[in-house]
Amino acid sequence: MKEPSAYRCMLARQEIGRSVVALRDVKDQIEGALPFGVKNTRSIPDTMITRLEDSLLYVWLTLDKMSDKGRSIDTDIHNPITYRLMTGSTSGGPVNILKGIIELALGTDGGGSVLGPAAATNLVGLIGAGVDACRVDAPSVSTDDLNFVPSIGAVGKSVGQTAAFLSMACGIDLKAEEDLPARIKIALPRRGDILLPDGADMRSKLDPFIDRLRKKFQGFPFLNFELQDYDVSGAGERIAAIQILTQAFDAGFDLLVSVEGPVDLYGYDETILRSFGGGAGTLLTGNGGKYFIKAANMAGSSAVAVPTNEAATTILVCGKPGLEGARAAVAMAGALESVIKPAPLFKRYFLDQKKKNDFRAGARKEELNDKDCDWRTGRTGHYRKTGKRTGRR
After folding, report:
1. Maximum CA pair distance of the chain?
2. Is residue 373 included in any domain, yes or no?
3. pLDDT value at residue 393
4. Model confidence at 28, in pLDDT bands (50, 70, 90)?
5. Given Cys at both, which of 65, 111, 302, 344 links 326, Cβ 3.0 to 4.6 Å?
């Protein structure tokens, strides 16, 4: 671990009852293993967590909060970046990453429940919806009455680290560049198709990053891409966004790239409040900044959210269904990440964790007793005190 486990445990104990549901016993930690959290849902198979821990590369530290009833807004905790209510439903994990408790978070995505929280906190989000190994056999229905099957996803600080983590959990390799298409065909939004909540045109906000990408990777054989304008108007509605993705992939595109956000900053993209009569619900939920974020999983697209240097704003790379599409999305996301510099203070405080809390007690190894990093929760549920689970969640 980058930080002494005692310090992480002290941070986690402060968040119990908020972003942390329970804290796991890590007395038998492996030197150098990265601490991760798991979303508090039964949908994540035990086999995935076992794979991660058996690799000795990762150590499970926290059980992370999920928003009540899986809503797209968690009314219990706040986003540390925007001060707004936290985006759900994988809400606790990204907050715990920003607070320095864990490095990676495992979650589930039905209609943006991993990609949305990652985008809202300027972290990397990745879902494996296009790959059977990352799908979950737990059919569900969204708040807008759409049937879907969730996928497993991950949140982290970099594309490479997050892809390696999800690859290990799912038992596949999402990073293999040798299996990419000879030429990656990419659909880009046209100018004028979508105005973002801050008033900017989606394509205009995307173009500077595409220009940097062209200059840096021109002639690189592993990332030989062809860019084409594509009609994405209407993508603010989930059904339309699903149709746009499906039609783009059917037309031969490997990827669709968009800019999403600011997510849940100018308004909350949440269906329940919007369903009430009168204009208040529409007013408060009309500028959530989510487009393909809430459609990728339902379209069977493995997708990567790559944070920009603007608050709660991400470049979303959606891949065509299948392993080839997932790998192309990860490769393109990694290339985009390489031409984006995060905001300096965000990097210092949250990515590099240069600013530390000067705790009075409990943060030094010699002050940490045997129970301080054990499961600590008012209700044990499906968990034993050792942190071992008694059955599927």
Report:
1. 62
2. no
3. 32
4. low
5. 302
